[in-house]
Amino acid sequence: MPSDGDLRLVSGWGRTAATAAHLTSALTPVDLSAAIKRAGPRGVIGRGLGRSYGDAAQNAGGDVLVTTGMNRILDVDVAGSTARVEAGVSLDTLMRTVVPLGLWPVVTPGTRQVTVGGAIGCDVHGKNHHRDGSFAAHVESMVLETPARGTLTVSANQEPDVFWATAGGMGLTGLISEATIRLVPIETSSMRVDTERAVDLDTAMARMTEGDRFYRYSVAWVDCLARGRSLGRSVLEFADHARLEDLPPAGRHRKRALRFKPVASVPAPPWAPSGLLNRWSVAAFNELWYRKSPRRAVGRVVAAAAFFHPLDLVTGWPRLYGSRGFLQYQMVVPDGAADTVRRSIEALSGNGCGSFLAVLKRFGAGNLAPLSFPQSGWTLAFDLPAGASGLGPMLDRLDEMVAAAGGRVYLAKDSRLRPDLLEAMYPALPTWRVVRERLDPDRRMCSDLARRLPALLDPPTPGAAR
Amino acid sequence: MKDALGAVGSVLVLGGSSDIGVAIAAKLAGPRRATVVLAGRHPQPLESSAAAVRAAGAGRVDTLPFDADDTGSHDDFLTKATKHAGGDLDVVVLAFGVLGNQSADEAGGDGAVRLARTNYVGAVSVGLAVARLLRAQGHGTLVVVSSVAGERVRRANFIYGSSKAALDGFAQGLGDSLAGSGAKVLIVRPGFVRTKMTEGLPVAPMSTTADEVARATVKALASGRQVIWVPGSLRAVFIVFRHLPRFVWRRVPA
Ligand SMILES: Cc1cc2nc3c(=O)[nH]c(=O)nc-3n(C[C@H](O)[C@H](O)[C@H](O)COP(=O)(O)OP(=O)(O)OC[C@H]3O[C@@H](n4cnc5c(N)ncnc54)[C@H](O)[C@@H]3O)c2cc1C
Ligand SMILES: NC(=O)c1ccc[n+]([C@@H]2O[C@H](COP(=O)([O-])OP(=O)(O)OC[C@H]3O[C@@H](n4cnc5c(N)ncnc54)[C@H](OP(=O)(O)O)[C@@H]3O)[C@@H](O)[C@H]2O)c1
């Protein structure tokens, strides 16, 4: 029997393909195991803050268990630089607690509004991936409720196969109740940022490869609408945590330097029409933004929140993409396949489907998690309105290119991948399926993502859905 | 499972040898090699439809016996169809229907009653069963192939027209009843379509093809629209037709 939680329409951050599920909230670990026991034939999936773009945290006709009520920080070990937290704690809450103590979560995605459970479930990465790897690398241990094996405490040493299957496992191995994560010591809550413009893609890539040796954080914002010789023109940002001495003398005492009070976000203005972002407004914005960026600026000191989470400043911005919602395409290709990045940007700028900016970044080596997204190479991500014409075939072609180059797309962002390419993109998928099957032989964990990409749960049969 | 851009993993066609139904299945299933189940009364035409859908790129294609008139069998039939679809039914196309022979049916016999039974009673029975299933699934779309003939019923074919008017009203209400359930109804109102149903009839103005109906349907499934007309211009035409005085309307020929 599914739970009798409210039947609600649930969608991801992109607001495409909403489906109805029984929504319940978990407040304690017992709620998690109870939810698994109660799950009916359509199963149950965990959901944090719903920041994955597609259908990873949806489960049509089944149960969706929201974990944001499990939001206690259980312990912070300042000397050892670790925090033990419940899975529903958001990085926002965690930062507000640990930054004043001089600590920073090693990995943060482009928004603070994600839960620790969601960060593990997608094995998220940040602008420091080339240096520090992805989220799971900094998880000391976690507690997982599983259908077949009950409560497990796992780490890279203790039941490592379960640990790595859960990292990036898209919630399909069980429900995480808590995790102990490692933090880095910081002197200030500011970043020291160097910015430069790159006139084209080759320049941007060359400069990023160089810069990554010197900076902990790096990212390039690519103007997808620039064509021809300007194809791939970008603004590059390199950064490190600011030291006390980087601050103006007046700000150099510890308490003030570690202040972390990012402004509560403001909503997108109500007069902004839904669907405001079209080809023309985007093109105008991109031009202005590129021109206004400094050709080169060194040592700018900015608040960490502004550097890491610029989009958190405006709530409701997805509405600007219109009623059909939007999607994000994020792929990674190996270092040698820079040409695939170029051809993707070409496809985008040629298609004119109104992509805002693309984010380009170099990844360092991947980890042992079979479904973890990052692998060493280039990652490119861009948002697109779902209603844009010709989008489906264009992205299908990108999928093919990416797979052929030995790359993959990011399941946390995905809402439309060609199902037949999943296994080519994630060659360790069979290993993952075996571990998953052991933890959940009766298929109690399920999501719309798993239904859309059946190879997640079952080896593909010849002639099956593409 | 339908994806963000409307691509689907499975399609069931009720009236599996209908030219319009097959065209929709082919267009929907092609890009992602979706599983297709074609359900109908006669195995032979179903097999040739299956071949056409396979040729369009579908993945697995199965055929199943289904009779709209045998209302008692509909629940069991859907259980079986769901298994053949490999899990969920992403799209169900209600495409069966008969045109009847207006003058003969007016003159006597049971043709008119049989038409009403298939086009309306059969649709009500299987439509409700599909809706229950999609509601439990939490997603999925029932495509109801209605007709402009039901928008304002004409003297020349009022037996068929009234069955489509009833079907259309049923489909509208069914769609409303599913609000918030994740499941949806898409009503497709074609004008004159050149298919085996209309073979030998004089071609009406603004006629279209099964392929065009399919193209418009696939587009509407992606965008989430609830009612479409094919061709789209018929919508405006019928706004006018609806207001013609009765003495004019009843002289409109077949
Ligand atoms: C503006 C924006 C910027 C972003 N930038 C980045 C980025 O830079 N890098 C990056 O990697 N990602 C990025 N993301 C994606 C985001 O970090 C991930 O989707 C993240 O998983 C969202 O966390 P959540 O709590 O919202 O999880 P949800 O979206 O709710 O769930 C994500 C997955 O985690 C699983 N899950 C959630 N909680 C649990 C639990 N307790 N136990 C087991 N499984 C669970 C769910 O089942 C689901 O499969 C960004 C997203 C947005 C909206
Ligand atoms: N063609 C047009 O101009 C037009 C216009 C508007 C609307 N429509 C509607 O579109 C739908 C499809 O029509 P079409 O043009 O594709 O014609 P079609 O090819 O003749 O399709 C109708 C199908 O319905 C099936 N059918 C009839 N009675 C049935 C029953 N009791 N149980 C199961 N299946 C049954 C028929 O198959 P068997 O006889 O082999 O069972 C046939 O395959 C119909 O509802 C029609 O009313 C057509």
Number of strands of chain A: 20
* Overall geometry of chain B: globular
- Which strand-content bin applies to the residues of chain B? 5-15%
- The CATH class name of one domain in chain A reads Alpha Beta
In the CATH classification, which architecture of one domain in chain A applies?
Answer: 2-Layer Sandwich
Taken from the alpha-carbon principal axes, the silhouette of chain A is: globular
Task: Give the count of helical stretches of chain B.
Answer: 9
Q: Overall mean pLDDT score of chain B?
A: 96
Biggest β-sheet of chain A: count, sense, barrel?
Answer: 8 strands, antiparallel
Helix content of chain B: 40-55%
Low-pLDDT windows of residues of chain A? none
- Describe the largest sheet of chain B: 7 strands, parallel
Strand order of the largest sheet of chain A: 15-11-13-12-18-19-17-20
Structure write-up:
The complex is a heterodimer of chains A (466) and B (254). Chain A has 466 residues and is of the alpha+beta class. Chain A is built from 14 helices and 20 strands. Chain A has a domain at 190-422: Alpha-Beta Plaits (2-Layer Sandwich). In chain A, the strands form four sheets. Chain A has an eight-stranded antiparallel β-sheet with strand order 15-11-13-12-18-19-17-20. In chain A, strands 5, 6, 7, 8, 9 and 10 form a six-stranded antiparallel β-sheet that branches. In chain A, helix 10 runs antiparallel to helix 11 (391-404). Chain B is globular, with a radius of gyration of 17 Å. In chain B, helix 1 (19-29) packs parallel to helix 2, helix 1 packs across helix 7 and helix 5 (111-137) runs parallel beside helix 6. Chain B contains nine helices and seven strands, in the order E-H-E-H-E-H-E-H-H-E-H-E-H-E-H-H. Chain B has one domain (10-249): NAD(P)-binding Rossmann-like Domain (Rossmann fold, 3-Layer(aba) Sandwich), CATH 3.40.50. Chain B is an alpha/beta fold and 254 residues long. The model of chain B has no long low-confidence stretch (mean pLDDT 96). Chains A and B meet through strand 2, helix 11 and helix 14 of A and helix 5 of B.
